[in-house]
Each structure stands twice: as C-alpha cells, then as structure tokens.
Amino acid sequence: MPERGSGRGPSGAMPVVVEDVGSGPALILLHGLAGSTRWWARNIPELSRSFRVLAIDLPGFGSSRGHRRFDLDEVGAGIAGTMDRLEIERASVIGHSMGGLIAGGLAADHPGRVERLVLVDAAFLSLGWTATQFLTGPATTLRRTAPSLLPVLIADSLRAGPIRLADAGIQLLRADWRRQLPRISAPTLVLWGEHDAICPPAIGRAIVELIPDARLQTIDGGAHNPMWEQPESFTAAGLDFLGTVGDGRPIEKED
Known about the structure:
single chain, alpha/beta, globular, disordered N terminus, 7-stranded mixed sheet
C-alpha cells in the first residue's frame, strides 16, 4: 500500500497514513502494540462507505518502522500534525489497545480535533492491570485469537523487532493517564471484547467512570482484537455510534 502522508511531532515521530479511502467525514484508525493498519482489513471496506478512512501506522510499526523511536508522550502531536498536513480540522478516531491509549490522549490534549472517540480494548493499564495479566494474559488471549490473524501478528511483530516492542511495552506499563480521561469532551464509546485477558474488561469499566458521558459496549465472542475476531459486530457497533448505518445513510432519528 502506498504511503499517503505523514505528520511530524516535536521529536520527529512520523505516523504514516497507509490507507486513505472513501469520502465523507474523516475517520482515523490507530492500531495497537505489535500491530499495523492491516489489523483493520476486515473493517475498512464497510467503514469507507460512510467515511474518509485514514488508517495510520504508528511510528516504529508497520510501514513506519524505519523512523525514529516511538515516543508515547509525543505521538499524539504527530497525529495532529498529520491532520494539519492533510487539512483535516476534525476527525472521529478509533483506537485499539495501545492505539486506544493514544486516541484518548489525542482527545484530551487536542479536544477541538476529535469529533467522536471509540476506544477498543484500550491499554490504560494503570486502571486495572495486574501482574497476573502480565503472566497469563498473552497466552490466554493467544488461544482465543483467530488463526487467520496469527500470520499478520507474527509478521508485524518481526517488522517492529523485539527492542522496539519492549521499549513501547515499557512505556505502556509506565503510563498513568487517568488524569487526562476526565478532560475528554468528545462523545466516547468504549468497545471491549468479552474475553479479553490482556486488557481485562475492568479497565473498560474504569474508563467509562472517568470520561464524562462515555458508554461501554461488549463485543460477544471477542477477545483482545474484536475488530478482527467479530468484524461484523464490531463494525456495526462503530457505525451506529458514529452516526451512520451500513449503507452510508445517516441514522434516522425518532421524533
């Protein structure tokens, strides 16, 4: 997939827009740790019928792996810079896992840039993560991961490399952004796989308590990657919250 643009944060971190498809209101997709835009492959076709979808590879991952070190504190500014370069004033944002943490930070620090926010199994680990999840979560979730995702997961992990994965993982473990969540003013949907053992549902419940007017929705049968494991349910929930139905028409409001 060709690179469609990039934005530079204060330290030179450059998110790469790998897909820019569809038309309508802008919708940005942010992947998780060891991920890439390919993790949204089962959702983009339907989402792009209603939105201009911009799927981003975060600095150090996917097609942006050759750029400077991933910096969790500065990547949000890089995304805002990408929006400036593409002349996008406001966008809705869907972020998964680490990407959910970043999406929440973007909405808190740049409230004028985020129209609506969807946090998917977001890695706010300080809100409910324990040593038990560190020891058992990945293995438990791996057993529930769709076999078709495993080659993508392995390839993306190898592309990022163990040093970058460890560095980003340590940054996630140290991040305590609970003070930022109450500053989010965008309408927020917290989507969670019911069987997630990496970011347990307790984190989703804690997020909803901290973000004004946020609501939690569980994806039945989903684990840590519900957008891939249950793509139809996931995409339908996202489109309903973002204000459209599957064929791109606005949802009709009852009088």
